[in-house]
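Duplicate of #3305? Posting structure anyway:
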């Protein structure tokens, strides 16, 4: 450890600057979405088994809801443009724009070059949680997903029911291909219902028991035609570990709701990002 310079405290006391002020971001029309939601009827549902994953489709203009059923359970969510899997959820840029955890009115943004809203959160029954005394909050975009590679590195062995593998199997089944073909499309997730933060002494990523209870849900408006995959994490409520055959795990419910066609009159899916991609060449 190097000795601090004489002006160390002055350097530390410089006020931070928000990297991406979001005042000019296009804002979702939550009142329009709410009025459309009032006309919607359920058109599909999928049960995600414990320690496994499932895919679902949510057409542009529909709503999809992820609900805790039977017991506290967190889920890892991937989203893709249904017509082009190369456009997928970009957790890092979403985090840079909205912060480490998402709630109502915030959006899941897609990867470059599309970089547009994929889904907007329209309801969050855990919005009351806020940020606790440990710095923890729910629905994070900081954790990558539990995976067999890190598990092997830290613990050895071959564990196949972590979220990365669950998502890979589910996508392979949907595409009718092999896990090796599907795996490159699996990406960093929205950790639905997971309660996380960073320790204040070492800055390490932590998890704690999720406040989710049966009946809690997170609901989204699909901004474009979406293919989704959701894993019911093998850590259950993630109160102890997140790659486990012993943690209490429960299913998750995904429901899709379709509003009346007239309810979204004047709304159109967001266009891909307007940057010309010349990169100054």
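Output from current build:
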């Amino acid at each position: 450890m190097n000795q601090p310079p004489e002006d160390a405290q002055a350097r530390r006391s410089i006020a931070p600057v928000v990297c991406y002020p979001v005042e000019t971001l296009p804002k979702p029309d939550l009142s329009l979405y709410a009025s459309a939601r009032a006309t919607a009827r359920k058109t599909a549902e999928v049960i995600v088994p414990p320690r496994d994953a499932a895919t679902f489709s949510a057409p542009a203009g529909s709503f999809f809801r992820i609900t805790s059923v039977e017991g506290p359970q967190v889920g890892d969510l991937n989203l893709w443009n249904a017509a082009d899997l190369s456009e997928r959820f970009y957790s890092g840029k979403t985090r840079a724009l909205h912060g480490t955890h998402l709630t109502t009115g915030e959006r899941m943004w897609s990867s470059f070059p599309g970089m547009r809203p994929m889904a907007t959160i329209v309801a969050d029954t855990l919005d009351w949680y806020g940020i606790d005394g440990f710095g923890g909050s729910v629905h994070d975009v900081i954790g990558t997903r539990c995976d067999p590679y890190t598990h092997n590195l830290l613990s050895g062995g071959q564990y196949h029911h972590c979220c990365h593998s669950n998502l890979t199997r589910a996508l392979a089944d949907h595409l009718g291909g092999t896990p090796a073909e599907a795996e490159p499309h699996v990406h960093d997730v929205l950790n639905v219902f997971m309660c996380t933060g960073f320790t204040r002494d070492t800055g390490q990523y932590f998890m704690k028991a999720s406040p989710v209870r049966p009946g809690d849900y997170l609901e989204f408006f699909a901004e474009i035609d979406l293919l989704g995959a959701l894993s019911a994490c093998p850590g259950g409520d993630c109160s102890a570990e997140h790659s486990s055959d012993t943690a209490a795990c429960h299913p998750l419910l995904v429901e899709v709701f379709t509003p009346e066609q007239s309810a979204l009159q004047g709304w159109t899916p967001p266009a891909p990002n307007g940057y010309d991609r010349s990169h100054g060449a």
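Confirmed duplicate; merging threads. The CA atoms of residues 47 and 253 lie 5 Å apart. The chain has a mean pLDDT of 97.
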